[in-house]
Amino acid sequence: MPRKTSLAVAAAVTAALPLALAVPAWSHGFTTSPPSRSYLCGTHQVRNCGQVQWDPDGVEGPKGFPQRGPRDGEICAGADGRWAPLDDQRGGTGWPATSVTGGQSFNIVWQFTARHSTTSFRYFVTKDGWDITQPLTRAALDLTPFIQVNYGGRQPSNPTTHSGTLPQRHGRHILLAVWDIADTGNAFYQCSDLDFG
Question: Is CATH 3.30.470.20 correct for 29-195?
Answer without folding.
Answer: no
